[in-house]
Amino acid sequence: MFEKIKEKILGNKEEINGTEMLESIDIMKALGGEENLIDIDSCTTRLRLKVKDNDLVNEDELAKLGVSGVIKPSDGIVQVVMGEKSESIANDIKKLINDKDLSEALLFIKAIGGGDNIIEIDSCTTRLRLKVKDSDKVDDSRLEELGALSIIKPSEGLVQIVMGDKSSKIAEEMKKILL
């Protein structure tokens, strides 16, 4: 069902690049997370950021994510050289900060092994019910960090994540991203 994340998914009033959104969540984490970001802007090839703590910006992780360079001209100011996708990454990070449901669904997708690992999504009462290509790619400890009460793998390719009342909301958001 989900061979890959579709390049374009519907956002609030505009289209969102699903693949890039998953990248943006990693970039935001490498910048010290949402709590470290004060202001997010961009220019032609750079993210221009005001941050609480320059030291929380993980330059090694940003390099692994394909960033060309990081400039820290003064305390609280960081520029991340990203090329022409700087503006869309800045917009994605703003969306992630403003839409907690979207952000949470993306984190679940990553913990389940990415969009390419997910074949089917369903929910019932308190559980996310998933069909996946490879159960070994499902990161149980990360899912528990995200609030999973229990992870059940009844057979290869089937995963049930006990989430309580929010399981249907997470499933709905994941479907928006992956359909």
Give a summary of the structure in a few sentences:
The protein is α+β, with helices and mostly antiparallel strands and 179 residues long. It contains six helices and ten strands.
Molecular structure report:
This protein is elongated. The strands form three sheets. Strands 3-4-6-5 form a four-stranded antiparallel sheet. Strands 7-8-10-9 form a four-stranded antiparallel sheet. Mean pLDDT is 88; it is low at 1-14. Helix 1 (18-30) packs across helix 3 (86-98). It has six helices and ten strands, in the order ββαββαββααββαββα. Strand 3 (37-42) and strand 4 form a beta hairpin. By secondary structure, the protein is an alpha+beta fold.
**What value does the Rg take, in angstroms?**
17 Å
Helix content estimate: 25-40%
Largest sheet: 4 strands, antiparallel
Query: Based on CA inertia axes, which overall geometry fits?
Result: elongated
Say how many strands there are: 10
Secondary-structure element string: EEHEEHEEHHEEHEEH
Report how far apart the termini are: 9 Å
Strand order of the largest sheet: 3-4-6-5
Mean pLDDT: 88
Number of helical regions: 6
Structural class: alpha+beta
- Our estimate of the beta-strand percent is 25-35%
Poorly predicted residue ranges: 1-14
Secondary structure elements and their pairing?
Blueprint: E1 9-10, E2 15-16, H1 18-30, E3 37-42, E4 46-51, H2 59-64, E5 69-74, E6 77-81, H3 86-98, H4 100-111, E7 118-124, E8 127-132, H5 140-145, E9 150-155, E10 158-162, H6 167-178
Helix pairs in contact: 1-3, 4-6
